Amino acid sequence: MKIYLARHGETDWNKEKRFQGHRDIPMNETGIRQMEELARRIKETGITFTGIISSPLKRAMKSAEMIAEKTGYSGSIVTDRDFIERDCGLLEGTVWKEGLDINDPSYGLETINDLIDRAGRALRKYSFTDDEDILIVSHGAILAAVRTVLSEGSIDYYDRSVPIIQGNILCCEKEDGKETVFHQLF
Q1: pTM higher than 0.90 for the full model?
Q2: Is 8 annotated as catalytic?
Q3: Is residue 139 among the annotated active site residues?
Q4: What is the pLDDT of residue 178?
């Protein structure tokens, strides 16, 4: 079984370093180009998906639709609110600043533990089989939590040695009870 993790393309708020969270911000032109290029590269490698799951937010859903269309995926795209971005509370829409303590509870951010719990709950909804290749299109914070869950905790949420990058895909492979292996496709 392979699970592919793709982060949506760039938004203006990504570029401005704004906390997006649950705000439904669309991709900008750079983000659209990133997804067109990613879809082209996926198609060239011959990778196909047996299922696609997406966050319902515009930036992720549009990314999933573009990848599906350009790679010839003919199934439906499942939208799942558990794959929505981290709730950034009162910081949504504000610009990230050096020294900002995002762990200050007064901001109301979803905790990392809650985010990892939600990622685990989201993955447990599905009965993936060994012959499936699933694409999950979502957001940076929740995909880092998904990566932590898929690694069974061997990759810490904050570990950036296995990054979630816009315009690339992180492939997670698990074979018959063996440790999950992670690698960037491009």
Answers
A1: yes
A2: yes
A3: no
A4: 74
